[in-house]
Amino acid sequence: MSVNRQVHPIEAESYSILRSRVDLSHMPPFSRAVAERVIHASADLDYATDLVIDDAAVAAAVEALANGAPIITDVAMVASGITARRTLCRISDPITTRLARSAGITRSAAAVRLAHSDAGPGAVWVVGCAPTALEEIIARRVRPALVIGLPVGFVGAAESKAALRDSGLPQVSNISEKGGSAVAAAAVNALLYGPDGTGVTSDADDTSAAGAVE
């Protein structure tokens, strides 16, 4: 089924204000969509220079999503903000807690291991909370369609995002410590909604998530 949405007049007005304050027209369409939706979700114009977007990878990820690539998130808050598509998040599974304890890793890292076993290569990975999840994605060589790495915090967040860029994986990240679930979900929604915000992909499980962050 096609992913279609109606742009609310308030959202349209918000984007008009955003574009009056920062000009991202030099960016490729889908990279611009990611940057603008992240700024829209955060009201933080600094993301215009803080984001690091692999333009070719973002365009390829749109096609991968259209062909049914799974979306894997590090935490439930990111998953709840991704509209129009189901996601895979293993953070709350009891087996995740057991694996974390036995392996001496964080629950977020354990959730990545389990999700990778479920989904295999070609997924879009989305990290908005835990730097350790991003580190695990890099270490496990998950062969992603795209990694959206936007964890937040003063411990390990900036470092994990730098490691993502250094890894050579197809990625969207940012330089500073800021990030979070809302902006990570917004970046995915940009790929699903496209440059005009109305929807560009197809998915057999066309299901909207509650508590959407657009």
What strand order characterises the main sheet? 1-5-4-3-2
**Number of helical segments with 4 or more residues:** 10
Strand content: 5-15%
Q: Could you spell the SSE succession in H and E letters?
A: HHHEHEHHHEHEHEH
The total strand number stands at 5
What does the overall shape look like? globular
Quaternary class: single chain
3D structure, described in words:
The chain is an alpha/beta fold. Helices cover 49% and strands 8% of the residues. It is built from ten helices and five strands, in the order αααβαβαααβαβαβα. The protein has a five-stranded mixed β-sheet, sandwiched between helices. β4, α9 and β5 form a beta-alpha-beta unit. The longest helix is centred in the first third of the chain and has 14 residues. The radius of gyration is 16 Å and the shape is globular. The protein starts with 8 loop residues before the first helix and ends in a 21-residue tail after the last helix.
Write a compact overview of the structure shown.
The chain has about 210 residues and is of the alpha/beta class. Helices cover about 50% and strands about 10% of the residues.
